[in-house]
Amino acid sequence: MRDPPERYRAASERKVNADSPVSGGELRLFAEWEAPADGPANMRRDQALLEEAAAGAPPALRLYRWSRPTLTLGHGQAAGEATDPEALATFGVPWVRRPTGGRALLHLPDELTYAFAAPRGWATGVRAAYLRVMGSIWRGLSRFVSLDPPPAGALPPDTASPRLPCHAVATGHEITARGRKLVAGAQRWRRGAFLQHGSIPWTVDRALTNALAGLPADSPVDAVGLSELPARGPRDAPPSVEAVAAALDAAFRRDAAHRVLV
Q1: Closest alpha carbon to 182 in 223, 230, 148
Q2: Residue 49 maps to which CATH number?
């Protein structure tokens, strides 16, 4: 396995000083996509980011992958309402609970998952945090594919059936392409700090998503992956994980620097 590029490795190994203020566009990057992990390990690391942010640590962006297909459930979901245990066993897909809320989400090994945590004062509330995080992701991904306008509206209440997975429900704060969900996110707040978690898929396994939820195979899964979208640029190929990670890192750093200047 190759080592991460030097600039990512240095950022990911920076020690956390929980007493240091957020300044000068400071962002801790944890570049872990070349070392895929299982569900429990990935969720423990995300939980740790939230605990650090609640203690005052600077904002952190973690980019990572999964060692096998894994279903994550929101921290408040009842497994019996959101999954089909027999299907999980049949397909050999483990499930794990996220620190964040939201609906069941199937993670595939070819996706790039993001977790962003920030301390008190980074955003004024849930909506502001969603729009700011999604704005950075939108700017990073728009280098590679054409996207619908970034999220900007109100967050509608989620009244859909708990059985429906994340990719089947519009939330009002997702990034879409051609009217289909590309990137979603779910949050958890603690002492004014928050964690937002979501996936950036290259492919979407619609049949497996429905099966794990106990839904008919032809139930609508209105989501799309990066490899299904026309590439923006001279090469007609999906972007690499490394290129997307670099673009996200740059977009989040620009956002942090802009916040200090305005």
Answers
A1: 223
A2: 3.30.930.10
Question: Does residue 184 form part of some domain?
Answer: yes
- Whether residue 7 is contained in a domain is answered as no
As for how many domains the chain has, the answer is: 1
pLDDT score recorded for residue 17 = 34
AA identity, residue 238: P
Is 69 in contact with 208 (CB distance < 8 Å)? yes
151, 175 Cβ separation under 8 angstroms: yes
The answer as to whether 91 is a domain residue is yes
- Cα dihedral 138, 208, 40, 76, rounded to 10, equals 80
DSSP per residue, 83-113: --HHHHHHHT--EEE-SS-S--EEE-TTSEE
pTM of the entire structure? 0.86
Range name among 92-96, 216-220, 256-260 with the lowest pLDDT average: 256-260
Quote the CA–CA distance of 193 and 120 in Å, as a whole number: 5
Q: Which domain holds residue 91?
A: 22-261
**Residue 112 confidence (pLDDT) above 50:** yes
Q: What is the pLDDT of residues 172-205, one digit of tens each?
A: 789 999 999 999 899 999 999 999 999 999 999 9
Tell me the pLDDT tens digit for each residue of 14-62: 333 333 333 334 899 999 999 999 999 999 999 999 999 999 999 999 9
From 145, 164, 166, 229, the catalytic residue: 166
166 is catalytic: yes
Encoded tokens for 107: 């993670």
CA–centroid distance for 106 within its chain: 12
Evaluate whether 202 touches 219 at the Cβ level (below 8 Å).
no
d(CA 6, CA 48): 24
Mean pLDDT score across all residues of the chain: 85
Q: Please give the structure tokens belonging to residue 224.
A: 């799309």
Position 151 in a domain: yes
